[in-house]
Amino acid sequence: MAGKTIQFEVKRQSSPDAEAMWEKFEVTWKPGMNVISAMMEIAANPVNSSGQETTPIAYDSNCLEEICGSCAMVINGKARMACSALVDKLEQPIRVQPLTKFPVVRDLSVDRSVLFENLKAVKAWVPVDGTYDLGSGPRVFPQQQEVAYPLSNCISCCCCMEVCPQFNDATGFVGAATIAQVKLFNSHPSGKVLKEDRLRALAGDGGVQECGFAQNCIQACPKQLPLTEAISDVTRDVTLQVAKDFLRA
Amino acid sequence: MAAPKIIVVGGGLAGLSAVIKIAEAGGNVDLFSIVPVKRSHSVCAQGGINAAKDLKGEGDTTWKHFDDTIYGGDFLANQTPVKAMCEAAPAIIDLLDRMGVPFNRTAEGLLDFRRFGGTLYQRTAFAGATTGQQLLYALDEQVRRHEAEGKVKKYEGWEFLSAVLDSNGVARGICAMNLRTMEVTTFAADAIIVATGGIGAIFGKSTNSVVCTGSAQSALYQQGAYYANGEFIQVHPTAIPGEDKLRLMSESARGEGGRVWVPRTVGDKRSANAIPEPDRWYFLEEWYPKYGNLVPRDVATRAIHKVVYEHGLGIDGQPMVYLDLTHIDKATLNRKLEGILEIYQKFVGDDPREVPMKIFPGMHYTMGGLWVDFNQMTNIPGVFAAGEAEYQYHGANRLGANSLMSCIYGGFQAGPNAIAYAKALKAAPGDGGHASELARQQEMNRGLMTSSGTENPFRIWRELGETMTKNVTVIRHNKNIQEADEKIVELMERYRNINLSDKSQWANTSFAFTRQLYNMLQISRVVARGAKLRDESRGAHYKPEFPERNDEKFLKTTKASYAADADEPRFEFEAVDTAHIPPRPRRYDAAS
Fold first, then answer.
1. First to last CA, chain B
2. Calpha distance B574→B561 (Å, rounded)
3. Partner of B337 at 20 to 30 A CA spacing, among A180, B80, B401, B501?
């Protein structure tokens, strides 16, 4: 279908302190087009729908196959990955804006480093003795692998945090993604040596207690992580840990 | 003496592996990456990682892994480092397992293995069909641990521009650009390790991620590093065609029993499921009875090209063939391949458990790269390279599931070797070249920012991609390669007349891209000219005018160096190390 076009509205902001404004674009339709490929078209011809020259849109992206976690944004009101947002399946005009819970760097690009800091705080790793040859790893039965693998699929896109009503400055809530990683490492045969440290990191302010069970996270996760189940499992373990620590004290 | 300071550029598997080894040895390491390292391109690797652990009782050995790799690479790889990699591989798998990689398991709780292309053994460990993601995360977690302990400092959102070289040509650090403030700074180091991946972007569309531009390798080549075997580009047989990128459909789909076929009759209009067995042509199984659908990638890619362009049997007359999994039970597919089935479903809309996938070859992997010695050091003293950015482990064609191993092994070698080098390094003359390199890079930026031409960088890039894909991929004719080279020269001319539609000094992504584009153009000439010079067919490099391998003339590593006076590559050839396995004809169709 020659000449078919797609209408876009993009919320733009030239720097963290600048005022945001919406700019409209009309892009020639191509088969299989997604929100990222539309923005690539705009970069090759940076003109808005009023015919004015403008700047290419700044956004985060890398793999374009929904595995690197870069291109999360709010598209038609929904937090999702832009590369897998096919324009044929979206109502027009397609309204694209940056995630709202993270500081805007420019246009659609945001700073999500808070998640990586949270992963540090909960020691989301297996503390191996060293990388020299120490023989095979622990036996892991398929049933255990089938629990661990989905949790390990988290792409750090932060959609679960974006949609969570409790994820805000007032609560300091770590969010579902970090809690799911705590479950993952606490269930690993040698990762669980740090289990108590991780649970203590999630006790108190900003920890599991902040969860309000809105269950938005599990709806928004592009990788279908079992987030609510992870939160309830970890919450139970945190409660037990707090009780144990209280009795010990 | 203070601990040596090492800079690692690139946070994929190779870079992270190097960082871990340096941190563990007490070194002081800075890690630079354009993207947060957890989002590096290694995350896209799907099918698995090779190691001859022989857990299936087939009698597999590290020697057979070595032989398959050398034979698969058509004898172009230097054998000594490849042999060492294959011998180290089983212990690396154990290490990854100890780090918590959720590999698929057998009933007994041991690692499960599957078959991949170019081998007859089940040698590939895997975590569903997202193995690269799982390995990258495991290494990312270990680096985060070292970072929390203060042993690693990360510079995410910084782009490498060049090495800082002293008056003797010895590396003394790097020059990098902050992608938010656009500020250019030099950083001192006793050695640097470049692990910046492949160069897919020069082909416009490929299976590579956006950051895989080859810009860092090209910058180093322009500073005097040799670039080796640039003409060897892997075109993966099974990718999903797309407007913005070609999405990989892992070889593991065939490893788990997937079959490639086309309708036997030209113009067969029936839907795939309506075509009965006798009307389907399983051409790989017919032409290669021993390896079947698991011939090496270059062989499968040429076969698909032949069926589509010579036999005219592409689906609906389009350049596509079927990759069929529908005969495999769904539980197995979900357990072993779910990640890639989801990609197909999300981007194409069909469920590959129900209907055969439509696929076509796409540019995938860069066998060539920065020339390195057996210690992973380039010819610039103090500049090391590891992973896809260097040329060392895959010869003329890489076997599936060998890349993840070569990245990790290469990083594990580069890290300790860089420390050993740095410990013996003498003090730099003067300021080590920092001031002059900073001035040179700032001048380049000023020139671009003030350029008031008419050319859009993204359109130049598209034209580059189109000419490279058309002329320098699967089938190569000297006349066409020459045309491509002339086209690149024309694009470089037009680059001088560039117009940046964004001249701001904050998070200017098109400015960063325009800098990369120049380096892409330079490295494209290395690929094209190298291909033109090699008048033979070997691995992924196929010239119908010269259909045979010619060991007498071309059992040689191509080494390109940048001639600044003429602004073009010069070429020389280096003998290949064949110390262990004498070259023999490579024939996957024979029953050898």
1. 58
2. 13
3. A180
Domain holding A26, by residue range, is 5-110
Gap from B240 CA to chain A (nearest CA, Å): 11
Q: What is the ipTM of this complex?
A: 0.98
Q: Is the pLDDT of residue B353 over 50?
A: yes
Instruction: Tell me the mean pLDDT in the region B469-475.
Output: 97
A1 pLDDT above the threshold of 50: no
For residues B478-503, give the mean pLDDT: 96
B1: pLDDT confidence band, cut at 50, 70 and 90?
Answer: low
Residues B545 and B461 in one domain: yes
Return d(Cα A182, Cα A201) in angstroms, integer: 10
Identify the CA nearest to B159 among candidates B511, B522, B525. Answer: B511
CATH code of the domain containing B522: 1.20.58.100
Which pLDDT value is given to residue B243? 84
Domain carrying residue B488:
433-555
Domain match, A18 and A121 both = no
Q: Smallest Cα–Cα separation from B310: which of B429, B163, B474, B451?
A: B474
Q: How many domains does chain B have?
A: 2
Q: Are residues A238 and A144 in the same domain?
A: yes
pLDDT one-digit tens code per residue, A154-181? 999 999 999 999 999 999 999 999 999 9
Same domain, A87 and A126: no
Which of B244, B332, B334, B459 has the highest number of chain A CBs within 10 A, making it the mutation to test binding with A? B244
Mean residue pLDDT of chain B comes to 97
Confidence of residue B146 (pLDDT cuts 50, 70, 90): very high
> Reduced to 3 states, what is the DSSP secondary structure of residue A9?
strand
Which of the pair, B388 or B244, is modelled with greater confidence?
Answer: B388
Asked if residue B228 has pLDDT above 80, the reply is yes
- For tokens 């993604």, the residue is A177
Q: A139 to chain B: which residues are within 8 Å by CB?
A: 108-110
Name every chain B residue with its beta carbon within 8 A of the beta carbon of A140.
102-103, 105, 109
User: Residues B299-304: contacts with CB within 8 Å, 24+ apart?
Assistant: B299/B588, B300/B117, B300/B237, B300/B238, B300/B260, B301/B235, B301/B236, B301/B237, B301/B361, B301/B474, B301/B540, B302/B474, B302/B475, B302/B542, B303/B237, B304/B237, B304/B260, B304/B360, B304/B361
Q: How far apart are CA A224 and CA A150, in angstroms?
A: 8
Of A56, A58, A188, the CB nearest to B100: A188
In the set B297, B529, B538, B549, the catalytic residue is: B297
Average pLDDT, chain A: 97
B556 forms bridges with which residues in the sheet? B575
Cα dihedral value A42, A44, A45, A47, nearest 10: 40
For the stretch B16-63, pLDDT in tens is 999 999 999 999 999 999 999 999 999 999 999 999 999 999 999 999
The residue out of A60, A75, A110 marking a domain boundary is: A110
A230, A122: one domain = yes
What angle do the packed helices A227-248 and A176-186 form, to 10 degrees?
70
Structure letter (DSSP) for residue B175: E
| pLDDT at res. B220 | 98
Among A30, A141, A142, the residue with its CB nearest the CB of B243 is: A30
> Which among B129, B125, B121 has a CA at the least distance from the CA of B106?
B125
State whether residue A15 sits within 8 Å of chain B by CB: yes
**Nearest CA distance, A111 vs chain B (angstrom):** 10
Give how many domains chain A has, as a whole number: 2
Edge to edge, what strands does the sheet with B357-366 contain?
Answer: B247-248, B233-240, B357-366, B321-324, B259-263, B280-281
Domain boundary among A88, A110, A132: A110
Positive/negative CA dihedral, B519, B520, B521, B523: positive
Each residue's pLDDT tens digit, A116-136: 999 999 999 999 999 999 999
Q: What is the CATH classification number for the domain harbouring A100? A: 3.10.20.30
